[in-house]
Specification:
The protein is of the alpha/beta class. It contains 14 helices and 16 strands. Strand 7, helix 3 and strand 8 form a beta-alpha-beta unit. Helix 1 packs across helix 14 and helix 8 packs across helix 12. The radius of gyration is 23 Å and the shape is globular.
């Protein structure tokens, strides 16, 4: 998936050396474990994946990851200095809390403690991470409102968009060679791309598909944390699996509506889906369930239809399919122009610079105070 972390950290790689530590993979005991596997992305990010022997408890897993990171950062002159430690999960603090970066950033994308299978210790680790962070960024307005009272330097950075990546979908139309697994599917098409997990309202999807058997539902993305057998299987729902970021414009080019059937539960209470502006950048109108940030950021401006049940989804999709394109596309483009990932990163980078300057100033002040209280020379 190419989402917020990838958009931001590939841009960070233009200025910094970026090392991204992934969650560990576990393998049966074999020679050479634990070890760190490294790969470089085309965008200049180095990705490190800890490979650990299966069966380690939490303490030994943390110790192994801590040692692997230390080995990775060890250079000819000793441990390399870290300009920024950038966290996406507080759980990483358990094996990286000994590092001493100049600036610590917590980019809070979701309320992870509300997700299925979340660690019981996540809330405590988040409090610790907030205490040591110089900056807290939040991925949506609801998250910002929940976190801003917990940190003096909390900032709202809702989803950006790489409009240029999705814009070709507006012009491909019927002239493009469609992906083989979508070619021939009847129109109109309602599409989704993203992770399929407990945040999706599968019963709503089933109900809409059964009421409109003449519509085709194209569902792209990996199935995670739920049983694939639980997916609704009417003949007009097509589960096409994971597609790369580069492939998405070809699929979206012939979609009539972007459908976001999010469930309304604890795991979706604070989400701000990155796909909302991406659908619009591709020229695809949006119908979404009433996720708070979608309603406030897109629905109230008329850039997304909000639907609470199957009847409302059908009515919203029908209206979206017949509305004149030029007016709403012009309105969407004005909004999209203000939220590019380039501009989001530029503002984040400026705040990191300010935090680094504060750190240097605080260090100079502490040294001056220490010097003034030292015993005089005789």
């Amino acid at each position: 998936m190419f989402q917020r972390p990838q958009h931001l950290l590939t841009r960070a790689a233009e200025t910094y050396r970026v090392l991204f530590i992934e969650e560990p993979m576990h393998r049966p005991a074999e020679a050479g474990l634990p070890r760190m596997e490294l790969r470089d992305t085309p965008d200049g990010v180095q990705v490190a994946t800890p490979i650990l022997p299966a069966g380690l408890d939490e303490a030994r897993s943390d110790a192994a990851q801590r040692a692997l990171i230390d080995d990775l950062l060890e250079g000819p002159q000793g441990a390399e200095p870290i300009a920024v430690a950038w966290y996406y999960t507080p759980m990483a603090l358990s094996f990286s809390g000994h590092l001493q970066p100049q600036v610590t950033v917590y980019d809070c994308m979701d309320e992870l403690s509300a997700f299925r299978g979340a660690s019981p210790g996540l809330r405590l680790l988040e409090r610790r991470l907030m205490q040591r962070s110089d900056l807290v960024f939040t991925g949506g307005r609801s998250l910002y409102e929940a976190k801003r009272g917990l940190h003096p330097h909390a900032h709202l950075f809702a989803s950006g968009v790489d409009a240029a990546h999705f814009a070709p979908a507006r012009n491909l139309g019927d002239a493009c060679q469609e992906p083989a697994d979508q070619a021939g599917l009847p129109r109109p098409r309602l599409g989704w791309f993203g992770v399929v997990d407990e945040r999706m309202d599968l019963e709503l999807l089933r109900s809409v598909a059964e009421r409109r058997p003449d519509w085709t539902f194209v569902m792209l993305g990996p199935v995670v944390k739920i049983d694939p057998a639980s997916l609704p299987r009417p003949a007009n729902i097509h589960w096409l699996g994971f597609k790369s970021h580069d492939e998405l414009p070809q699929y979206l080019a012939s979609w009539d509506v972007g459908f976001m059937p999010f469930a309304l539960n604890e795991s979706t209470r604070y989400i701000s889906p990155t796909k909302t502006p991406e659908y619009l950048a591709a020229g695809v109108p949006v119908v979404s369930t009433p996720i708070t940030d979608v309603v406030r950021d897109w629905g109230e401006d008329g850039l997304a239809a909000i639907a609470s049940n199957a009847d409302e989804v059908i009515a919203g999709a029908e209206a979206a399919m017949i509305q004149p394109r030029s007016a709403w596309l012009a309105k969407a483009d004005m909004r999209l122009a203000r939220i590019s990932w380039d501009s989001v990163w530029a503002r984040m980078k400026a705040l990191i610079g300010q935090a680094a300057a504060r750190d240097l100033a605080d260090g100079a002040q502490n040294r001056a105070m220490s010097s003034s209280t030292a015993a005089p020379h005789v």
